[in-house]
Specification:
Elements lengths: L1 H10 L3 H23 L5 H17 L7 H26 L13 H20 L2 H12 L4 H8 L3 H24 L1
Length: 179
């Protein structure tokens, strides 16, 4: 009943009702986001995702059926989107494969840059679930068991996806080396 009143007020543009929803559901949203992304996002990123959830609620209030399920689904979707965004940023950063210090020969730096581009392309080309697992494990330093627990997948499935991802990356790098 309270959620219906909050939603009705938000639909009418009453900011205090949105503030009440934020007070009521912020911890819930943050828990969903943390469960979706594990340790791969900083606290500030989790808070940003939570803010995005409530902004989406405000912007789409007229389309919302039930408040709590909408908030939960939006939190999961926004968390996944943030993971993709973070993955792309990490892959664009320098030094993802090796330290390309100033002492190396120019041709060595060019080879490393080609490898970085190949790895970035290969990781971004992975299916969403595979890319998420790969990013959580290799860039977020999450264990297989943590990924399994947070994604609801069996550990064996997570391990298999990591193996498959490494094989794909190896093939891409070997292909690039031949060219």
């Amino acid at each position: 009943m309270i959620d219906e009143l909050l939603l009705r007020g938000i639909r009418r543009g009453r900011e205090h009702n949105l503030e009440q929803a934020i007070d009521k559901y912020t911890a819930y949203v943050c828990t969903i986001v943390r469960n979706a992304v594990g340790a791969a996002l900083a606290r500030e990123d989790v808070e940003e995702v939570a803010s995005d959830v409530f902004l989406a609620l405000w912007d789409n209030a007229g389309k919302v059926g039930k408040l709590k399920p909408y908030i939960a689904a939006t939190a999961r979707n926004k968390a996944r989107n943030k993971m993709r965004e973070v993955a792309e940023i990490l892959l664009l950063e320098e030094g993802m494969l090796a330290d390309s210090g100033g002492d190396g020969a120019p041709e060595d730096k060019a080879i490393l840059e080609d490898e970085r581009r190949a790895v970035k392309s290969a990781v971004l080309a992975m299916e969403d679930a595979d890319r998420e697992i790969f990013m959580r494990h290799y860039y977020g330093a999450q264990t297989v068991s943590a990924i399994s627990r947070e994604t609801g997948m069996k550990e064996a499935a997570v391990k298999q996806r990591l193996v498959r991802g490494r094989k794909k990356l190896r093939l891409v790098i070997e292909k690039e080396a031949v060219q």
